[in-house]
Amino acid sequence: MSKLPNIGTSIFTVMSKMAAEHGAINLSQGFPNFPVASLLTDIIIRLAKENVHQYLPMAGYPPLLSNIALLVKNSYRRIILPEIEILVTAGATQAIFTTIQALVQTDDEVIILDPSYDCYEAPVLLCNAKPVRVSLNDDYTPNWSTIKKACSANTKMIIINNPHNPTGKILTQTDFEHLESLLQKYPKIIVLSDEVYEYITFEQKHISAHTRIKLLDRCVMVSSFGKSFHVTGWKIGYLVAPQHLMKEIKKVHQFLVFSVNSLCQVAISEYLDLVSVDEIRTLYQEKRDYFIKLLTTSRFELLPCEGTYFQVASYAAISTENDVDFCKRLITEYGVAAIPISTFYENGKDLHLIRFCFAKDNATLQEAAKRLCKI
C-alpha cells in the first residue's frame, strides 16, 4: 500500500522528458544551461587533488558555516551562531523535508500557499499530518483573511516561499506584519521560509524572514547555493534556525544524510571569500529584461517578475485550451517546453498561465523567443 497514493511523477520530469523526446528547447525545468563561473570550477579542480574527500562534521564544514554566518550578517544584519544555528543540507529540498519531518507530528496541520512548489506536501503526508492548501489571490498576493480562517489549534507550521516559485512575487512589509500578527494569535505555529531565490530579485526589494525580529525564534530559513551559484546539480543548501528547533532538525538530518558532499562544501566556502552575491541579481535581471524584450512582439502577456528566474505568461489571447494541453502542444508543435501553472495548485486551478525559465544563455533564449513569437 502506497504512503503517497495521490502523488505521481513530477510535472518537471514530465515536461523535461517530452522536451527531450521532441527536441524542444527546455524552458520548463529550473536549471541554468550556461557555464559555471570559471573561478568556481578552478577551485573544484584544485581541491579534487587535495584531502577533502572524507566525511565532514554533520552540521557542515566549519569554515563554510562561518562564511554562511558572515553572508547572513552582510545581507540581513543578523548575527547567527555558526556552531548551533546553521545546518548544511543536500540541497534546499532536503532542508525542507528534514525540517518538516523533525517538527511536524501526526494530525498537525501545515498551511501551504498555492500555487506552491511540489516538494512541500509529501513530507507533511509522510508525518501523517494534514496539508492545508490555501490559494493566493489571482494576482499572487497572500489573502491573509483566508489564511487566518485556515488556521486552528492544530496548525503547526505555515510555509512561505519568498521570492515565490512559480510566480516571481515577493512578500511585502505588510505581508510580514500580517504573518507576525497571526503568530501572536497562534503561539505554537512555526514558519518555514523557503528563500532559495533570495539573491535573484530585481526592482522590488526582497524582505527576508532574517530581518523580522518577531519571527526569529519561530522560523526556519532555507537557502540554496545551487540556485545562487548556478550549480543545481551540486545539491548544496543550508538552513538557519534557532537552537531549540535546530536541535530537533539535526536529529533527523543525522539519519537522513549525516553529512553533505565534502568537496563541494569546501569549494563553496572558498568561493564565498572571492565573490559578491550582488553579481547574481545583475546577471538575472539582464536575462529577465532580455527575454521580455524578445517576447515583445509575441501574443503572450507577461506578468511582473519581481524575483526568481521564472517568467509567468498568459496565453489567454492565443488559446482557450487548458494549460497542460497548451504546454504539451507548445512542445510538439513549436519546440518549446514550459510548465503549466495549474499543476502548482491542489485543485488544478487554471488561469491560462504558464511558466518559462529564463536561466539560459542568450542564444537559447533568442531561439526560444523566435519560436514563441510564431504562435
If you had to describe this structure to a student in words, what would you say it looks like?
By secondary structure, the chain is of the alpha/beta class. 40% of the residues lie in helices and 15% in strands. The strands form three sheets. It has a seven-stranded mixed beta sheet, with helices on both faces. A four-stranded antiparallel beta sheet has the order 9-10-13-12. The N and C termini lie far apart (45 Å). The model has no long low-confidence stretch (mean pLDDT 96).
Low-confidence stretches: none
Helix proportion: 25-40%
Question: What is the first-to-last residue Cα distance?
Answer: 45 Å
Overall geometry comes to: globular
Strand-residue proportion: 5-15%
Number of β-strand runs: 13
| Helix-strand makeup class | alpha/beta
User: What kind of sheet is the major sheet?
Assistant: 7 strands, mixed
Q: Give the SSE string.
A: HEHHHEHEHEHEHEEHEHHHEEHEEEH
Number of helices: 14
Provide the spatial order of strands within the biggest beta sheet: 2-8-7-6-5-3-4
Oligomer: single chain
Rounded to the nearest angstrom, the radius of gyration is 20 Å
Draw up the topology in text.
Elements: H1 11-22, E1 25-26, H2 38-47, H3 62-76, H4 82-85, E2 86-89, H5 91-103, E3 109-114, H6 121-126, E4 130-135, H7 144-150, E5 155-161, H8 173-185, E6 190-194, E7 219-224, H9 225-228, E8 237-240, H10 243-256, H11 262-272, H12 278-294, E9 301-302, E10 310-314, H13 323-334, E11 336-337, E12 339-340, E13 353-357, H14 362-372
Parallel strand pairs: 1-11, 3-4, 3-5, 5-6, 6-7
Antiparallel strand pairs: 2-8, 7-8, 9-10, 10-13, 12-13
